[in-house]
C-alpha cells in the first residue's frame, strides 16, 4: 500500500475508496445489519493469478465495518432474508468468520475493473444498527480516526473526508520464496495431501522455544501484504490454494483484533486471526 491515492492508469489497484464497474444494486449488503458492506480493496491480479479465466482480471473485497464488528454478530432473520432476496452480482461470493460476521468478494472483468467507481446503496429500511462511520467520511478517514498511532503511520497524512479517497497498491515480485505456487499448510498436519509447503521459521538446534525461534533468510524481507507464497498468519496456518492474498488490518481498515487475514480467491475461503 502506497502513501498516495491510486493512479488507475499505472497502479495495481487500491485500498479503501469505492469498488469499480458495478451498479449500486450489485454492491453486497451486510445480512447482519442491512447496511452496505465496506469496500476494503480492489486488486488487479497478475496474469499468473487469473485462475477464473483470462477475462476475470481483478477482485474486490468487502468486509463488515469495524464499528459493526464487536463481540459476535447478532442474527435478525428478517434482515438476513431481505438481503438474500435482493439481486446480486453474478460473481459474488459470500463468506462468514468465526463470529458470524459477513465478508464478500467480487470477481471483476476488465471492463468492470476499468469502469467508474460505484455508489454505495441505501441500507435496508429494516436496518436498525448505528450508521457505520465509513459511509459518512470514507473508509480511509474512518480508519485513520480509529487506528492506533503505529497504524496511522501507514497512511501518512490524514486522508480526505471523501468516500472516494484511496491508497494505491503496487506489486513487486518476491526475490526468493520457496513456497510460491504451493498451497499453505500447517506443518503439524492438515486434511489435504502435502504440497511441499514449508514454514518461514525454524528452531535453532531443533529445540522449540522462544529463545530458539529463527527466521529463514529467504523470509526476512517478505512484505506483510502479498499474493501467494509464504503465509505469516497470527495464529494457525489455514489450508488454502496457492491463489490467496494475505493482508493486515490497515489494508482496508478492519477489526481483526490486531491480527491479519487471508482471502483465497480461487476457492473463495476467508480466514483471520487476532494478534
Provide structural commentary.
The strands form 3 sheets. A 6-stranded antiparallel sheet has the order 4-5-3-2-1-6. Strands 9-10-11-12 form a 4-stranded antiparallel sheet, with no helix packed on it. Strands 7-8 form a two-stranded antiparallel sheet. It has helices at 77-85, 110-113, 134-137, 139-146, 149-152, and strands spanning 13-16, 38-44, 56-63, 92-96, 102-109, 166-168, 201-203, 213-215, 226-227, 244-248, 260-264, 269-273. 11% of the residues lie in helices and 21% in strands. A hairpin with a 4-residue loop joins strand 11 (260-264) and strand 12 (269-273). With 275 residues, it is of the alpha+beta class.
SSE blueprint:
Elements: E1 13-16, E2 38-44, E3 56-63, H1 77-85, E4 92-96, E5 102-109, H2 110-113, H3 134-137, H4 139-146, H5 149-152, E6 166-168, E7 201-203, E8 213-215, E9 226-227, E10 244-248, E11 260-264, E12 269-273
Antiparallel strand pairs: 1-2, 1-6, 2-3, 3-5, 4-5, 7-8, 9-10, 10-11, 11-12
Amino acid at each position: 500500500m502506497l502513501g498516495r491515492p491510486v493512479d488507475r492508469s499505472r497502479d495495481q489497484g487500491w485500498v479503501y475508496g469505492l469498488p469499480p464497474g458495478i451498479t449500486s444494486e450489485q454492491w453486497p449488503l451486510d445480512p447482519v445489519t442491512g447496511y452496505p458492506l465496506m469496500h476494503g480493496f480492489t486488486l488487479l491480479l497478475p496474469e499468473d493469478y487469473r485462475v477464473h479465466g483470462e477475462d476475470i482480471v481483478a477482485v474486490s473485497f468487502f468486509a463488515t465495518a469495524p464499528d459493526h464488528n464487536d463481540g459476535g454478530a447478532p442474527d435478525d432473520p428478517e434482515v438476513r432474508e431481505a438481503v438474500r432476496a435482493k439481486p446480486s452480482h453474478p460473481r459474488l461470493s459470500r463468506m462468514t468468520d468465526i463470529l458470524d460476521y459477513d465478508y464478500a468478494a467480487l470477481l471483476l472483468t476488465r471492463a468492470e475493473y476499468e469502469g467508474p467507481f460505484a455508489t454505495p446503496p441505501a441500507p435496508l429500511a429494516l436496518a436498525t444498527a448505528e450508521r457505520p462511520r465509513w459511509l459518512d467520511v470514507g473508509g480511509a478517514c474512518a480508519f485513520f480516526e480509529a487506528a492506533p498511532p503505529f497504524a496511522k503511520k501507514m497512511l501518512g497524512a490524514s486522508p480526505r473526508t471523501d468516500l472516494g479517497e484511496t491508497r494505491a497498491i503496487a506489486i513487486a515480485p518476491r526475490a526468493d520464496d520457496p513456497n510460491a505456487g504451493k498451497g499453505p499448510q500447517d506443518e503439524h498436519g492438515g486434511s489435504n495431501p502435502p504440497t511441499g509447503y514449508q514454514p518461514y521459521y525454524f528452531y535453532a538446534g531443533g529445540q522449540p522455544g522462544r529463545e530458539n525461534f529463527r527466521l529463514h533468510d529467504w523470509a526476512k524481507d517478505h512484505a506483510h501484504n502479498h499474493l501467494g507464497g509464504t503465509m505469516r498468519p497470527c495464529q494457525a496456518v489455514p489450508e488454502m490454494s496457492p491463489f490467496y492474498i494475505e493482508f493486515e488490518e490497515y489494508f482496508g481498515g478492519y477489526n481483526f483484533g490486531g491480527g491479519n487475514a487471508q482471502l483465497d480467491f480461487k476457492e473463495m475461503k476467508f480466514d483471520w486471526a487476532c494478534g
